[in-house]
Design goal:
The protein contains two helices and three strands, in the order H-H-E-E-E. By secondary structure, it is α+β, with helices and mostly antiparallel strands. Strand 2 and strand 3 form a beta hairpin. The longest helix is centred in the middle third of the chain and has 7 residues.
């Protein structure tokens, strides 16, 4: 949610962000790992945006399956990471 609220995003936001209301400390643990540059997740079927937040890119994967909800104009796809 903070990426969308406070930073520039790239991609589509076609529904509200669905995230836990409780801060579990996961993001703090991720930022302590100096080698982590990107974190990707799914769940919000109609979001595929990414943005930089506190030095880490937070990314949605794209909707890939045929059984999910959402508008027909939101095409299925994938996000590819090339790691070198």
């Amino acid at each position: 949610m903070n990426v969308y609220t406070y930073n520039d995003i790239f991609g589509l936001k076609a529904e509200e962000v669905c995230c836990p209301a409780v801060n579990t400390g996961l993001f703090s643990a991720i930022t302590e790992q100096k080698t982590v540059e990107w974190v990707t997740a799914g769940h919000d079927h109609n979001n595929d945006y990414y943005g930089l937040y506190e030095g880490i890119y937070l990314t949605y994967g794209r909707k890939t399956g045929y059984g999910s909800y959402g508008p027909t104009w939101f095409l299925r796809g994938a996000r590819v990471f090339e790691i070198t």
